[in-house]
Structure formats: C-alpha cells, structure tokens
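User: Hi! I have a protein structure encoded as tokens and I'd like to know what sequence might fold into it. I'm fairly new to this, so please keep things simple.
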C-alpha cells in the first residue's frame, strides 16, 4: 500500500490561548501583527517555512505559540467559500491586500490592453498572439499530466496539422482544440452537467487511462488517487462519488453565478473553479486538464479575453511541486484555500510579465525587420508575417498547403509567396516524405538585427 503524504504540523494542544491573545494586543502587539502580515504577503506561508523565520518579533513566544497567533489572525479575517470538503467543512480564504492592486489593474483593462496596446496591433496580429497562448497552454497543461514530448516537437506537430501519432500527441491536440472551442463558442454557454461532460469528452477524446480504459465518470466504490509518479506517495484521495455528484450540482450553479450572494472577483472565482474540480476528481482521467480548461472558460465567459494570451500552465510547469503543494496546504491546513489562490495569482503575474517581455522583444525586432524588407525586398504582408513567425525557431517550417490555409489564399498564390522567399535566400526547401517543406535559415536572423 502506498504512503499518504501528511503535512508536518506543530502540536498546538497545550498552547495557552490567553497568553498568545494578550501578546497580539499588548504594547508589543503591533510589531507582532506586522510580523504576521509578512507571513501572508508577498507569499502565504505554512508552518514548514514559518518555523525557520528569524528573528522572532516577541521573545516571550515560542515558535509554536507564534504559529498559533498566525492561525488565530487568519481565522478571524477569513471568508467562507461554498466549496465543501467530504467531511462537511467549508474551505475558507483570505482577501489579501496585495490582490486589490492587481485586480484593479486588470479591471481597468478588461479588453486586454493590460497586455497589448490597442493601437500597436491589428486584429490578425492579436489573433496570432492568442493562438500562441492557446498552443503553449495546451502543451504545458498536457505535460503536467504526463504527456512526454518536447515543447518544440509539440508546437511543430500542431502547426503542421498532422494526425497525432501517440497518446501524448492526442492529449495535446485535444487540449488545443478544446481551448479553441472555448474561445470560439463554449465561452458563451451556461455551465451544465452535460457541458461539463462534453468538455471532459473533448479533452480525453481517443485517449485511454493508465488502466487502458476510456476516461469516464467514476463509479461507486472506485477509488482515485493523486500519486507522485516518482515516489508513489499519495497526495490526494478523491471523495466518494455520491458526495461528488451532489457537489457537481452545486458546482454548476456556482460556475453560473447562481449560488453565492457575496461578490467574488472573477479571477479568484476562476481559481476556485479550478480547485473545486481538481478536489472532486469526478472522472477516471483528465481531471487536471479539465480544471485548468474551466479556469479559462470562466474568465473568457466573463469578458477577460486577454487571458487567452497567457499560457499559465507553462509557468506552473516550471514549479510542479509547488503546484501540488498548493493543493495539499489548502486541503490539509484547515481547508485554507488561500494557499491555492495565492499560488495561482503569483503564476498569473509571472505569465503577464513574461508575455509583456516577449511582446516588447517581438515588437522591437519586427520594427527593424519591417523597415528592411519593405525597403529592400518588396515583400507582401503574408510573406513578412511568415518570416516573423519563422524567426528564432530553427525547426519551424511551412508548406504550400499550410501557407495557403493560414492566409486563406489559393495554392497558386501560396506557391508564388514561398518561391520568392526561397529565391531571395530566406527559405531552404527540403523534401519531407512526399511533401516539400520550407525551413527558415540564418539569413532571416540578419533581418531582425540590422
């Protein structure tokens, strides 16, 4: 039998509650409360980090007593959610002050100008950026669930539009098509059990569970565990399916904003939706991918379309252990969902920062390139966009069929575009199987550096 992971918690049974309460409000209380605030922001810390903090703000308190004050203050200021655990308790969260500034920035730019300056990009360019975000998210979310292929090969496979050859490619393609389907129409639909099953079917199409079965809703008595693939340690056991079915009814109402009376910011609510599905683990496979897909569904449904630019799973994939522990802290530290919310907000901020850096670099390089090619080579917009796409990726390629499909032009026009670029020395032609492919070469790099 595999071992269950349990958080290492201090023994607080013999703590003198009167003593720690007085410490919060005596002459040194302000210093102690300031220290507690530092344990909530910028990172929301559990005991495993807090116990190493030095120096202590109050020498009369042990570290265990200090942790008791932290727990007391968090409990006093926490807000109940409607997410219930299997034992009947409800998850809670803290509305941390640092969130307000970020939410304000996002809400002032709900159309996406937080990430993209409206005047700098046309509709086609914005769609390209969204396609990049969707592709990166589809790949990373699948890799988090075990898809064993490199990002470079996965992007190449999606760009070429060929059929998937293995289980990993099926996962990635399903994620990609599901993300596109949300952008194209699912975002306008109300949540329902049938829609939930439909989305799950979309991300698990033509795939099998590790046991060789088609992914489906769990049956009575069918245990599902979240297990570390390396150590075999169990981090989560999914609740009983009868409880899950009851909660899914409430989940649907919550996702449709029909259940809670108090306002929850859409970003926080999307994170809660992400957590809730992952906690319930309704299906035999695909729960993590579905949870992250629903995060995007809720935000796009509520007008936060700029999040289509942000492949947040790509950032999460850089710290998968922290991602797992955000679930564990929330479940095992008195149902405190703040850990999971804080982790995801931090990753969203990182995704925004990374996207802005990418955008700035692309913009500057494209300005140089545009000036050179229009002056010296008389290229059309399609050819310029292709060179910009191929730039920086030695494995990137196109074909007459792909170029024709992307630009909605005839095969003859696509052939003329590519032959001119090849004649100018920007593309190398290679035969791959029965088809001719056009690859970038080093001459393209020079266009972006002049």
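Assistant: Happy to help. Inverse folding works backwards from shape to sequence: for each of the 450 positions I chose a residue that suits the local structure. Here it is:
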């Amino acid at each position: 039998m595999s071992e269950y992971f349990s958080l290492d918690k201090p023994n607080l049974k013999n703590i003198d509650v009167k003593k720690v309460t007085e410490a919060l409000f005596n002459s040194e209380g302000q210093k102690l409360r300031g220290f507690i605030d530092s344990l909530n922001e910028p990172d929301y810390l559990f005991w495993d980090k807090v116990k190493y903090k030095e120096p202590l703000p109050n020498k009369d308190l042990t570290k265990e007593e200090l942790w008791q004050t932290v727990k007391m203050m968090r409990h006093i200021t926490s807000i109940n959610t409607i997410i219930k655990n299997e034992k009947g308790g409800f998850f809670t969260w803290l509305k941390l002050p640092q969130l307000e500034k970020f939410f304000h920035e996002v809400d002032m730019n709900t159309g996406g100008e937080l990430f993209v300056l409206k005047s700098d990009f046309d509709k086609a360019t914005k769609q390209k950026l969204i396609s990049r975000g969707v592709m990166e998210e589809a790949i990373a979310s699948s890799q988090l669930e075990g898809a064993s292929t490199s990002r470079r090969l996965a992007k190449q496979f999606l760009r070429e539009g060929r059929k998937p050859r293995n289980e990993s490619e099926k996962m990635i393609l399903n994620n990609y098509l599901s993300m596109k389907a949300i952008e194209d129409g699912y975002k306008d639909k109300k949540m329902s059990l049938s829609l939930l099953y439909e989305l799950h079917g979309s991300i698990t199409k033509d795939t099998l569970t590790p046991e060789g079965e088609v992914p489906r809703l769990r049956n009575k008595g069918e245990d599902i565990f979240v297990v570390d693939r390396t150590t075999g340690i169990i981090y989560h056991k999914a609740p009983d399916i009868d409880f899950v079915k009851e909660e899914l009814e409430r989940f649907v109402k919550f996702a449709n904003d029909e259940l809670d009376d108090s306002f929850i910011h859409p970003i926080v609510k999307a994170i809660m939706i992400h957590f809730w599905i992952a906690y319930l683990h309704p299906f035999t496979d695909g729960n993590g991918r579905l949870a992250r897909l629903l995060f995007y569904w809720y935000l796009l449904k509520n007008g936060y379309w700029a999040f289509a630019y942000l492949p947040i799973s790509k950032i999460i994939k850089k710290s998968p252990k922290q991602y797992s522990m955000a679930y564990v802290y929330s479940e095992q530290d008195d149902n405190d969902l703040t850990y999971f919310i804080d982790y995801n907000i931090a990753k969203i901020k990182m995704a925004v920062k990374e996207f802005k850096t990418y955008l700035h670099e692309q913009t500057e390089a494209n300005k140089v390139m545009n000036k050179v090619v229009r002056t010296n080579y008389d290229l059309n917009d399609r050819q310029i966009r292709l060179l910009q796409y191929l730039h920086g990726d030695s494995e990137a390629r196109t074909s007459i069929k792909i170029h024709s499909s992307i630009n909605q032009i005839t095969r003859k026009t696509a052939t003329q575009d590519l032959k001119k670029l090849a004649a100018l020395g920007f593309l190398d032609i290679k035969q791959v199987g029965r088809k001719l492919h056009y690859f970038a070469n080093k001459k393209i790099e020079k266009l972006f550096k002049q």
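A useful reference point when you look it over: The domain at 377-447 is CATH 1.10.10.10 (Arc Repressor Mutant, subunit A). Feel free to ask if any position seems puzzling.
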